[in-house]
Amino acid sequence: MNRYITTTLPYVNADPHIGFALEIVQADALARAWRAQGDEVFFTTGTDEHGQKIFEAAAKAGQEPQAYVDHYADEFGKLKVALDLSYDAFIRTTSPQHIVAAQEMWRRCEAKGDIYKKTYSGLYCVGCEAFKTEKECVEGKCPLHPNAELQEISEENYFFKFSKYAEPLLAYLERPDTIIPEWRRTEAVNFVKGGLEDFSISREKARLSWGIPVPGDESQVMYVWFDALTSYISTLGWPCSAEATQGKPEECLFEKFWVQGTTLQVAGKDQVRFQSLIWQAMLMSADIKNTDTVFYHGFITSGGQKMSKSLGNVINPLDLVQKYGTDAVRYLLLRHVSPAEDSDLTLEAIHDHYTAHLVNGLGNVVARVMQLAEKNLPAPIPPLESTHEPVIDYRFNDAMDRIWSRVSDIDQAVAEQKPFEVVKTSPEEGQAMIATLVRQLQVIGMVLSPYMPATSEKILRAVKENKKPENLFPRI
After folding, report:
1. Is residue 475 part of a domain?
2. Alpha helices in 262-363 (DSSP H)
3. Using one digit for the tens of pLDDT, what is the confidence trace for 135-162?
4. Within this chain, do residues 230 and 355 fall inside the same structural domain, yes or no?
5. Which residue range(s) make up the domain with 387?
6. Is residue 323 a contact partner of residue 331, using CB atoms and an 8 Å limit?
7. What is the distance between the alpha carbons of residues 476 and 461, in angstroms, rounded to a whole number?
């Protein structure tokens, strides 16, 4: 099976945060699990680099916008090594490849009669890069950015006929797996039933020059969301087709992975309107296949509060990696953060999880078993055919719990069966007990691969060499 998976594109106006680290590690675990079961996977991510927030942040920093986004794109690029990510492409919305695609998307929607120009006045949230209707505001403020004043803007913009796609969107959302978890699908359906309004998809260049020019109208630039959403197919080389590759669809990544493959987008819970409604309507307008599934994760809070620099509770994933290591951070995000609900993390809890479950848990079990094996087994145990376990319903924490249950079983078996004593009085029986424990450890190493790839490799190498490995998780 051909599978396509993408994260959202983080906005490059700040350093990477723990919420995006969760999203991209979830996507990476799925990509690795699918590859392990024999699927061909295209895994992509990137950065969203246009819009008013970027323009204003660059000006505040005394930099040109391009230099500003180059710096932050590099910061997000560091996550590939820091989190051991296996993505195949990193798309930037300032790249020539993407600009061509975004303008082609505009032309197709315009040819469909879905783009028109009108003068509009409304309240604009710079933080969301979006106009806010009265019903979306709470006490006259954007609920997501309550400390920022909404800007009253009146200008002539192009609009997308979002309202035209209410019925097609409801038909699309009828399929249960279009959105996971189910309550997010209900949220999307209710949003559509509440009435869709056409929305502005351009800004006057005189006010905001940092954007992709609107085809045929140099006085306007594209609205950042209309631009950025197209990245999910521009990363695949769209516009391209089987015809353009002389009838060889495998040479057109878009044809192979989007049209003929199964597509999954991973996004935060605040993205439902954009990913499952606006983007899907754009695809319908351009006569492009809709996304098969969008999986929405929850938010990470710290100490019961939203993370913010002013509160001093921001958790930087790069700092965590530097202290605890890559696989420890992947473990933390996949086991101790709910896949779809909000979760709370503190630095104290992170340290406790690391010590209890990695240092004293998996690390200790591997060391004990492989030390017994090295001292008492005459040769490595025979190799085992590769095995894997699917991630059921995106429940990464359940998959990790099952693995740690096996770790606990091994630890309990060592304590109760005492193979270190049996091998002294009955060598053959003791060796058989140790070999069984090593085999169980080998299985753990295999099924751990999508979640903690480096740790998996170290365990499997230790089993293959019949040697106790270096300490997997140093005590901190």
Report:
1. no
2. 272, 279-285, 317-324, 326-335, 347-353
3. 778 777 888 778 778 888 778 899 999 9
4. no
5. 346-465
6. no
7. 25
